[in-house]
Amino acid sequence: MMKNIQKLVLISLLIFVFSTIGMTCLYFLVHRFAAVYNLKYITTVITQVGMIAAIIPSMIFSLIYSLIKILKSKWLLSFLILVLFGFLILVIFQLSLVMVFYHLDDSNSFLSSLMEIF
After folding, report:
1. pTM as predicted
2. Are 32 and 99 in contact (CB under 8 A)?
C-alpha cells in the first residue's frame, strides 16, 4: 500500500514538472518577441506562469492515472477519461488565452488574470 502511494506521488510530481516545462515553453512561443532570454527572465516565467499554469493539467492527468488504476469497469473508465480530456482541452485553451494577453510587466499576477476568466 505504501509503495503505491509513493509511486502515485512520484508520477504526480513528474507530471507536474513536465506540465510546467510545457506551459513555460508555450509562454515563450506566444511571446517570442520578448526581450533577451536571460536566466532571471526564464526563472521569472517559470515561477510566475509555468508553475501556476501547470497545476490544473497535472491534477487532471494525475486523476486520470488514478482512475486507470482504481476502476475496473471499462465503460465507466472510458467515459470518465473522455470527459476529463474534454475538460483538459478547455482548460488548456483558457490557459493559452490568458498567456496571450499576459505580460510579466503587468501589475496583475498571472493567477489573478487567470481567475478573471474562471
Report:
1. 0.79
2. no
